[in-house]
Amino acid sequence: xxxxxxxxxxxxxxxxxxxQAINLAGNGVVTAVASRDPSKGRAFVQLCQQQSPxxxxxxxxxxxxxxxxxxxxxxxxxxxxxxxxxEWVIAAARAGKHVLCEKPCAVSTDDLREMLDACRSAGxxxxxxxxxxxxxxxxxxxxxxxxxxxxxxxxxVCVQFSFCADPHWRDTNIRLDRALEPQGCVGDLGxxxxxxxxxxxxxxxxxxxxxxxxxxxxxxxxPGPVPLEFSAExxxxxxxxxxxxxxxxxxxxxxxxxxxxxxxxxxxxxxxPYQGGQTRFDVSQAEFVVDKCDFHMDDHRHxxxxxxxxxxxADSQEANLFRNFGELVLSRQVDDRWFDYSLKTQQVLDxxxxxxxxxxxxxxxxxxxxx
Length: 371
Description:
Elements: E1 4-9, H1 13-25, E2 28-34, H2 38-51, E3 59-61, H3 64-68, E4 75-78, H4 82-94, E5 98-101, H5 109-122, E6 126-128, H6 136-146, E7 154-162, H7 167-172, H8 184-200, E8 208-217, E9 226-235, E10 241-247, E11 253-260, E12 264-267, E13 278-284, E14 287-291, E15 294-298, E16 301-307, H9 317-331, H10 337-358, E17 362-363
Helix pairs in contact: 1-9, 4-5, 5-10, 8-10
C-alpha cells in the first residue's frame, strides 16, 4: 500500500476542502463517500471531481455502515455533527479504519475517552482536524517562543476567533442546533483557541478555568440554547494566564498574542492563513523611553515570514494534515500524542462550559491525565 484509501462520511461543506487536501497530499485517494441521500452524495462527488479530480471517481454509498466496512477504505474522515460523531468514530475503529475526526471531537470528555479507547484497542490512528497544527509556520513560531531573547518568560496568552453570522445563518446552520452542536461557538471556534493556548504553553493544563456565556441563542427547532458569544480565563502554574473570546456575533478575527517578560508575538491569522504565498507573525520588543520632558514608546517590531501558501496548495496546512496522517498510516505506526492533544483540548473546553453553567471557576483536578 503506497496510498491511503479514504472514505468520507457525509457531504459536509468542510469535506470539499479536505477532499482537495487529500488529493494535494499525494499519498491518499478518496475511494468512497457515504450519504443518507444518494443524490446529495453524487452531487458532492461531481462537484469535487470537477475541481480536484481523482483518476477513479469515488463510489457513492447510501450508508455509513457500508463505508466503514468497505474493503476499499483504510481511513475514514468524519465531518458529521458532534452530536452523532461518537458512534461513527467507534464503529470505524472497530472496523479497523483509521480516523480523522472533525472538531470539537465529542460532546464530552467521557465520550471522547470511549472514542480514543476504541481506536487504541483497534490499533488505529486518531487525529482531529485542526489544520494549523500542521502548518509550516508553527515550527518557526515555536522557535521564536522558545528563544529567551525574543519573548522571554511567557506570562500571558490571548486568543480570539470570531465571525459575524447573519440571522438566516443562525436559523438554518447546524451549529445553532443544540441536538447536533451543543457547544455552539465554544465547540466550533473555542476549540482552536484552547488548542493554541495549550500548544503555546507546552501542553500543561490550567489549574483553574473561568468561563462565561456572554450571549446565547435558541432557535425555533433547537431543544435548547447554545452559546453565541463566550469568553474564558485560564490560570496555570507559575502565575501564567490565558484568555480567549469566541463569537458568532463579531466580524472575522482570528488573532493570537503571546506576551512575555521581554516582548510579545502577534499572529493575525492563526487558524486560516491569509491568502498569498507566505505566512507571517510579528515580534515586538517595545521600549518606553523617558528623556527629560519627552516620553515616547519605540515599537521595535519586525515581521517574520515563512514561505507557505494560505490554502489550496500541496504545502498548505490542510494538505500537510492529510499527508502527515497518511504517513502514519502507511508506516503502520500510531502516534499517541494526537490522542492526548485532542483529549486535553476537550477537557479544558468541558471545564469552560461547566464554569459558565455554574457561574463560578472550576478547579481542574491535579490527577487529571490524558489516558
